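Chains adopt folds. We examine one example:
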Amino acid sequence: MSAIGETELEEIYAFAIQLGKEAGDLLLAAADLRMQGDGRKEQTSVEKASSVDLVTQTDEATAVSEKSNPIDTSASAQRVHLIFFLNMATEVGGRGGKGGMVHGVRMLGSATMDLAYTAMGSFDIWWEGGCWEWDVAAGICILQEAGGLVTRGNPPDDPLTAPIEDVNLGSRLYLGIRAAGPSDGETARQGQERAVREVWRRVRELDYSRPGI
């Protein structure tokens, strides 16, 4: 796998630092606004339309700020060598003549962190087997909101033509693809689906049962 150059690493580092500073400034400004006054005056509050909605006005402002300076996901910016990210509860074993190779297989030991890195665009493909829905629910939301695609981890009978449906959260088998930009003759979604089918062609079916089912 080709190494990332020092200049590119410095650019990524500077981008991440600046993004963190800007998001932090927004959060601090929102906190200061709620604390205005001398401690005795009542502050105006706005009740959310849905009491179960976890997204606040501050969250929305932070998202707008981040989207104003997005990561370049255009076809010209995509690396030639894909980085494949996976985590499995057990050793899969031999490849059985499946063919196809990846340039890097990595894991952080946490499904949420794996998903976050995929949402950032730091990793291209995430394949997970054996974890539970509470391990991946938040990360799947983050990846989908970032423009990623999350679907079933096990390959269907016909990986080249089977419909690519949204992931079943309780399936314990997951496949995620990072956000992508369109290219000549292919939309972003088509590119993601092509990546899904290429993964399905190369992986073996796993079986992670649920107790009591």
